[in-house]
Structure formats: C-alpha cells, structure tokens
Design brief:
CATH architecture of the largest domain: 3-Layer(aba) Sandwich
Oligomer: single chain
Radius of gyration: 20 Å
Helix content: 25-40%
CATH topology of the largest domain: Rossmann fold
Strand content: 5-15%
Number of domains: 2
Largest sheet: 6 strands, parallel
C-alpha cells in the first residue's frame, strides 16, 4: 500500500464529494490508489456511504487495509502511524486552502472536509466525469431533465432546510438563507436574464411554496423518496444558472455545470455561528450576495 491515499469519508453526499475530489486530484498527480475509509460513516446513524451512485474511482478499504484511527492519540502524535509502518496522517488545519496539502504524496491518510476548488481545479474535467451518474435517470427525473434542457434561461434554486432547521446544533452552526436573501438573488438574475425560469429544489418544498413569494411561478421540484440525492444534484447541474444555499450539496449542483458563462449566486455568509475563513470556498467567478 505504499502508493495508497486513504480518504476518511464523513458527512453527507456533498461533503464526501469534496473529500473525494481532493483525493482524486492527489492520485492523478502521484499515481496513487484511492481507498475509502468509511469507519466514521458506519458509526453515524444519520449518514452512510453516498458515492455509490456516481462513477468514482477507488474502492472501500478492507478492514486489514485501514490506517490508524484519527483520535486523541494521533492528534497529539500523528507521527506514530509512520513509526508503526503506516501512512502519514494529515488532518485539515483550517477551512482555507492549504497549498501544502495539494502536493502530498502517498502513502497518506486524509482527515477533513477540504472544501475548496483550489485543491482539484487542475483535475476538473476528470472529476466531473467521476461524478457522472452511474445509472440512467428514472422516468420522472428524465422528464424534468428534458424540460430543463428545453428552457433557454433555466435557473436552479436550492433551499436547504432539513437538519439545518430541525437540529438546534446544526441550526446554530450553519443557519439558513432567509426568504429576503432568495428574493434579492432572484432580482439580480431577473435584471440580467429576461425570461428566466426557476426550478426550486428543496428538502421542504411546502416551506418554499409558503415563504418564497417571489418564486410563485417557479417549478418546485418535489423530492423523491428513493434517497438518490445525486440524481437531484444532477438535475440542478443541468440548469444554465444557479442560486445556491450555504450547503455543499448546493455547491456541487452548481459546480458540476461545466458552462463557462453560467452565473452562480452564493451566500456571502456561509456559516451563521462559526468564524471559518471561507475565502477559498466560493470559486472566483461566482457571485457572493
């Protein structure tokens, strides 16, 4: 395993995609093999491995292939893994891009979120290919994909509710984009895109219909019950422009759209209750509002 790159996968689909994107870029630069460490996911009752619906490279590591766990001992002595013949253990030191991480060589085990395009911009085309759907869309989503394709000025709008609202800890940490923010984002695009048609994706469509008055004529996309979130993300990426929430799911829905002339409006404040440095989170061509 001297050429292995272990990725500790955590969180939901969007977070796992960020973790994968860094690992994939490092593997392309070094010729390393990607191995997924899913031990944290196995202990999380709310999350599970979410990359199986995409065409990712790499595989889930076998139990006897796993590196030391990242914990109290390894935080104090990350060199212990190397001393015992294992990979170098690298934990994310901050939210901003770390250039030292981008040049890591295997064997290495990565622990963090790595939420910046700067880690993998040089491998963008490959990663978009890896994040293509592994299976065809179902009939309902296929019909919506056709509708989006037939719309010259389609705009995806993502409204993230779920645990951002129901979980007090998540709500205090992340917060949500309020109706006034969505109204301002829509007004900005309306001024530049006459005839724009909005497709509102949300895990709480009822809330959206009741609170986003300016989007009354929009197409509200009801969530499917099949748990295939990557398919809804794919539909978002088919739109020509994007209004995203403070969500990694939102972020990828916009980033997977490869058009150079797309407009993406993102929240200026990504976290409600955390002082993370988010200057590297939003690509330079996107707009912060």
């Amino acid at each position: 395993m001297s050429k292995a790159i272990w990725l500790e996968l955590t969180g939901g689909l969007g977070n796992q995609m960020f973790q994968y994107a860094l690992g994939r870029a490092l593997a392309l630069r070094s010729g390393g093999e990607l191995l997924f460490d899913t031990r944290v996911l196995a202990r999380d009752p709310q999350r599970s491995y979410a990359l199986d619906g995409l065409r990712v490279a790499g595989r889930i590591a076998l139990p006897d292939e796993l590196p030391m766990r990242w914990g109290r001992v390894t935080r104090r002595a990350p060199w212990l893994s190397r001393l015992l013949g294992g990979p170098r253990l690298i934990a994310e030191r901050g939210f901003a891009y770390d250039p030292a991480v981008a040049i890591l060589a295997p064997p290495v085990a990565l622990h963090g979120n790595w939420q910046s395009e700067r880690y993998f911009a040089d491998a963008g085309a490959t990663i978009r290919g890896d994040f293509a759907l592994a299976e065809r869309l179902d009939e309902r989503r296929e019909a919506l994909a056709d509708e989006i394709a037939a719309t010259p000025q389609s705009v995806s709008v993502h409204v993230r509710r779920g645990d951002y609202v129901s979980n007090p800890t998540a709500n205090a940490y992340h917060g949500t984009c309020v109706p006034a923010w969505y109204a301002a984002a829509k007004a900005r695009l309306d001024a530049a895109l006459p005839g724009a048609r909005y497709f509102v994706f949300s895990d709480d469509v009822a809330w959206g219909r009741a609170n986003l008055a300016e989007f009354g004529a929009a197409d509200f996309v009801e969530p499917a019950a099949d748990g295939r979130d990557e398919r809804d993300m794919h539909l978002m990426s088919l739109c020509r422009h994007h209004i995203i929430a403070n969500s990694s799911f939102s972020w990828w829905g916009a980033w997977l759209d490869p058009r150079a002339d797309k407009r993406v409006i993102a929240p200026a404040r990504w976290f409600a209750g955390a002082a993370h440095d988010t200057r590297d989170l939003i690509p330079p061509t996107w707009e912060r509002l």
